[in-house]
Design a protein that fits this description.
Length: 132
């Protein structure tokens, strides 16, 4: 990876962090040699994100990475989502992945109906808190 690509990746991760801060969520990257994972929370809600960068129309993710991701979500009692950044932060649920042998594929064009923004997560979380 070139220095410019790394700079772009860091810039986009910073954009994602800043968007979450607008909703009083803190995000911390987890060290993982094979993928970018982040934990975000506001004290009550906890999410774990697999950050897919640089943005592409189709992401190939090894199944073992998804299993590890789901295991971490279970251990943290966090809700897992896939996150990418093009013009804005876009979030996908895990069921947007398609099975393709030893990979899972996230096709951003096919999954447009499943994508949403972080605002949607926050709104849903606030509704859940108000009904309790």
């Amino acid at each position: 990876m070139s220095g410019f690509e790394n700079f772009q990746r860091v810039t986009k991760i910073t954009e994602i962090k800043n968007e979450l801060k607008e909703y009083d969520f803190e995000m911390k990257l987890l060290k993982d040699a094979e993928s970018y994972l982040a934990v975000a929370g506001d004290g009550e809600a906890l999410y774990i994100f697999m950050i897919l960068l640089p943005y592409k129309e189709e992401f190939k993710i090894l199944k073992r990475h998804i299993w590890r991701f789901k295991t971490l979500a279970y251990k943290f009692k966090a809700k897992p989502y896939l996150v990418t950044y093009n013009i804005m932060t876009t979030i996908y649920p895990l069921h947007a992945l398609e099975d393709a042998g030893k990979h899972f594929i996230l096709d951003t064009e096919k999954s447009k109906g499943l994508m949403f923004s972080f605002d949607t997560i926050v709104s849903k979380q606030l509704q859940e808190r108000l009904t309790i």
